[in-house]
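Form 7-S
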Amino acid sequence: MTEKKLNPVIELVSFKGEDCLKFTFTGHFSAEDAEIAVAEWRDFFDTLGEDKVIVIWDSLNMKGFDLKAQKIWQKELKELKEQIKCVWLITNSKIIRAGAKFMSAFTSYCLKVVDTSENIAFSILL
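Output:
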């Protein structure tokens, strides 16, 4: 029996001199994936205290998502928005871009969308 890989893979990375929490999505993002990832995400944020973190959602290899997954993700964003400096979404998909913009409208977090990681520019946030 093969073990299911975590989707997204979540890791703390140093990117362009900034510490970031990076989520790398692959394939289809299901409600089950969202539940598991939210628990891991919350555990990480619990260790931050009052600190804020830059979040990167690398969705270049994401093929789609369940609406229930989007709702779970949106709920978590509302609860953790005070600990997020900004979310950088990397995607070429109009559907994923629209879904993220929809979520940001209800949570008032900073969302920047780029098509490659090279286009992330933290200096515009300062």
